[in-house]
């Protein structure tokens, strides 16, 4: 027992020596030690809203996608299954409003594009008549080639970010010309990204990794540079939750995650001291 307390005292003296040496001599040893400790005590940027939704029993299928109409305070969820409503509509507070099962067979993605004059919801099962401005679609591993392109988002600088899931990377393009601007792959060595969205302030990307059941908060690069991927924080979900697609509320910054393994959608609320909401 005496040896134990001698070891404890010795460790305390050693740490005190490091502090004094760093203070007066600029030793890099303590700086490295401090970095290691801060990495292990990473602060979370989000918390789970355990009260959302109020009635989870409406999730009766496999929840594949989610969209947020922040203008009208609505959350749309697409689910797959036989003889069930394919689209569910909730309020941002989690109250169920309505559901429908027509025009939709097997929803994969959903997007809300409402304006002050019109509510508009786009679902990937429904054909579109948009004019194609540019197209990249060849299968492969090189620049501007894809293997399961699974999610796409746009930043305020006019860059298109594509989750190239099978190639374990995010590729970036110019939205007007389609020019390839670069790629991130250093953050996705274990599993490719299945979904990507920007926070309202544009400072971070929220990235889902399906088979790892993980969400990552990644620092957004400055305009004119793609650089390397840098993970700021992670949210580790339970095994086999399988986050498929996610959406970020453009007003509140809340993150909604469609989980095909857990067959539910969960809501994560930002801690405002780290991730300011839109307009703050």
UniProtKB/TrEMBL annotation:
Ranges annotated as spanning the membrane: none
NHL repeat ranges per the UniProt record: 137-176
GO terms for biological process, alphabetical: proteasome-mediated ubiquitin-dependent protein catabolic process; protein polyubiquitination
Record has Repeat as a keyword: yes
This protein's UniProt keywords: Repeat
One matching Pfam family: NHL
GO molecular function: ubiquitin protein ligase activity
Organism domain of life: Eukaryota
Protein name per its UniProtKB record: NHL repeat containing 3
Source organism of the structure: Macaca nemestrina
Gene from which the chain derives: NHLRC3
């Amino acid at each position: 027992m005496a040896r134990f307390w001698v070891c404890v005292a010795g460790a305390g003296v050693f740490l005190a020596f490091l502090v004094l040496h760093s203070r007066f001599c600029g030793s890099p040893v303590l700086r490295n030690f401090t970095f290691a400790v801060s990495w292990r005590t990473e602060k979370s940027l989000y918390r789970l809203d355990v009260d959302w939704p109020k009635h989870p029993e409406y999730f009766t299928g496999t929840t594949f996608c989610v969209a947020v109409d922040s203008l009208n305070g609505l959350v749309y969820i697409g689910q797959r299954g036989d003889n069930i409503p394919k689209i569910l509509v909730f309020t941002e507070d989690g109250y169920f409003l309505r559901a429908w099962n027509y025009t939709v067979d097997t929803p994969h993605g959903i997007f809300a594009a409402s304006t002050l004059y019109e509510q508009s919801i786009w679902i990937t099962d429904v054909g579109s008549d948009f004019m194609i401005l540019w197209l990249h679609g060849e299968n492969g591993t090189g620049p501007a080639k894809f293997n399961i392109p699974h999610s796409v988002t746009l930043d305020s600088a006019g860059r298109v970010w594509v989750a190239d899931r099978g190639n374990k990377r995010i590729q970036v393009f110019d939205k007007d010309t389609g020019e390839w601007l670069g790629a991130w792959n250093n953050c996705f060595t274990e599993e490719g990204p299945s979904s990507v969205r920007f926070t309202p302030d544009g400072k971070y990307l929220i990235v889902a990794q399906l088979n790892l059941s993980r969400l990552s908060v990644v620092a957004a690069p400055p305009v004119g540079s793609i650089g390397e991927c840098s993970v700021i924080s992670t949210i580790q979900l339970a095994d086999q939750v399988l986050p498929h697609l996610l959406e970020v509320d453009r007003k509140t910054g809340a993150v909604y995650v469609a989980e095909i393994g857990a067959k539910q959608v969960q809501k994560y609320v930002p801690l405002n001291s780290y991730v300011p909401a839109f307009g703050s």
